[in-house]
Amino acid sequence: LVRLPHFAWLFQWFHCNNTHWFECLEPGLVSSFCIPNCANFTKAGEQDAVRCDTQTQLIRRGCKREEIISPENNLKIVQGDSLSTLSNQPEPVQLSPQKISLRQRSGHSTTFSVSFKRAEGYPVDLYYLMDLSYSMKDDLKNVKELGKDLFAALNTITKYAQIGFGAFVDKTVLPYTNINKEKLLKPCDENDQHCQAAFGYRHVLNMTPSEDEFKNKVTEQSISGNLDSPEGSLDAMMQAAVCGDKIGWRNSSTRLIVLTTDAGFHMAGDGKLAGILEPNDKQCYMENNLYSKSSEMDYPSVGQLAMQLEKNNIQPIFAVTKEVENVYKQLSKMIPKSEVGVLSSDSKNVVQLIKSAYNRLSSKVTLTHDNLPANVRVVYTPKCDHAGPPGDSEGVCDNVRVGQEISFDVTVTATSCMEDKSFTIRPLGIKDTLTVTLSTNCECQCVDPQNSSHPHCTGKGQVSCGICSCSEGSIGQFCECSIGAKDERTLRASCQRQNGTECEGRGDCVCGRCKCHTTESGSSYHGDFCECDDEHCEKFLNKLCGGRGKCNCGKCECDGGYEGSACQCRVSEEGCRTLNNTVCYGRGTCKCNRCECREGYQNPRCQTCLGCTDPCQTKLNCIECLGFESGPFKKNCTVACSKSIYHEMVDQSTIQSRKCQQKDSDGCWIKFNLDQLVGEDNYKAEILKQRDCPEPPSVTAIIGGSIASVALIGILLLMLIKLLIYMKDLKEFRKFENEKKKSKWAEVR
């Protein structure tokens, strides 16, 4: 990727089968233009990247309008069946168009309109899923009588209504259900005669338009029971969603699940309480109308359930009691196209609740998409009376009446190259879909001359999209270089510095040597590998080299009297002068009227060195040999020390800067003072004439002490031995006394 001069364009090369292609991209997603046919468009030293520019600039540079290639976005409606008014067709159309093909520039957007109209009398499939735990006993009695009212309510919506029925309690394992054999068969109170065995989920009635069949099947149902309060409602809803052929869902219908319960729900992870570790796999396991894996597979997660409901276009209505209303409202937020209604204590209002919830669901149209290809963005802009805000995940129109036509503007943007990538747009809860097939124009549509020995390519190649594609044995921008005995790889390697980029990306490798491009200002890159330019030196006061020097290969060459990395300073040593009229005490250099000290020395004048080794220790050997002719440097003292230390033997020191007291090789204490002179290793030393040497040890005292110590140790050992013998004798004596007391003497008569 190369940044072009003066513009925010990007230029990208593609090389395939010795053919070059261009792609012009712009980060701001504004059109750019390619010019593949202007063979003489680039001047000597110019990059081929100048072919990508705005149309106005290209024409200004001399390119003919007919030689400019700028692919346009193209939209094709592959299938656009008209919207249906009534649902008397086998497959009424509620969304148009149905298939669209897009071909557009990478980074550019295409907007198209999608229309929706809910067909009047559209079929409705309602699956009544009821909690049959013991707390719902009173509700079951009323549900057995609501078949007539429920069908009557649906008939006001459509004449193509069907109703199914299912029931659930919970998994038949501890701790959810009492697994005592008798309790499994009759989990209700002993006085309750109408009680069915414990079960997880049971499908009772397939979708049917018959009111009598619904009433008969529901009447046969009886209450059951379990131990804990949450129920297995998510298990039941998952099976009702994925077992479509067993439930009897129609292909073209509004699908509703009405869940009635007075308790919360178990979810993924709760199965661990019963030792159930296998996660829910979202598959159908219905045998003899019972969920056969209820005791083997964990509950589904809310996300899994939401995904399957959306995939199968099912809209849930939660008819729950007041106590758990908030729980199901939170659940509804995570499941698209769902509603919550509050049941009365005996479920008498369930029909009105279903009707109200259906009206809310059907009047809200949400257009969204499934998984998008990578680097594709879709934005929905609703066009209706009660439109929601534009969004990149969905578009919403509310209060939409049956038969009212609404539309959405859909904007598709692809930011990378792709070919025939598809995604689906659909209204939530509706079967109708729009399939969008997306491709991008990442290649210029060049009309190349057929001459294989084109003059522009020195007769040794052909022009392909304005670039020379050289014949075998020739290379170069205009095929002007013959390879000869060398191969192309060897020639190109000679244009790379330290196995890096060819000509540093700033030139072309021509016959094994770099031919440098021009810079933005019109000057040229230079150097054997085009590594140098004269435009990127340091600036001062927004001027290159402060306007007081010349930029050469990234470094400033200052005019006389100026110095610094940007020629920002006058040559002067005033700020570096010390009290003894030296420059930085000889421990640094003066640049820009400031001292640049050697390592360890501190500004402003490099006088002190906080990180240096203590000279009292480093100079001890020299002090010893210079002052007392002893120590390690005794034999070569003049050579080792005379150049770094000027010394003087004194009775009393006058130097106060560094006072030292060190022990020499003879064990004597030497006192001396140091003063650092100009330079790094240059000292003046004043050495006191008198050393403090310790007195030698007394031999007599040592011998006497040793003898006394041996004698004392001997006496202590004898006392210890005597003590041990005494303790042993004492022990034996006490033992004898004890045995004596135990003895019995016979009296002699």
TrEMBL record:
Ranges where the Integrin beta subunit VWA domain occurs: 34-444
Molecular function GO terms recorded: amyloid-beta binding; integrin binding; protein kinase binding
InterPro entries listed in its UniProt record: EGF_extracell (IPR013111), EGF_integrin_2 (IPR057073), Integrin_bsu (IPR015812), Integrin_bsu_cyt_dom (IPR014836), Integrin_bsu_tail (IPR012896), Integrin_bsu_tail_dom_sf (IPR036349), Integrin_bsu_VWA (IPR002369), Integrin_dom_sf (IPR032695)
Membrane-crossing residue ranges in chain numbering: 699-725
A GO-annotated cellular component: integrin complex
Localization (cell): Cell membrane
Family annotation (PROSITE patterns): I_EGF_1, I_EGF_2
PANTHER family: INTEGRIN BETA SUBUNIT (PTHR10082), INTEGRIN BETA-2 (PTHR10082:SF15)
Name of the protein: Integrin beta
Organism of provenance: Cyclopterus lumpus (Lumpsucker)
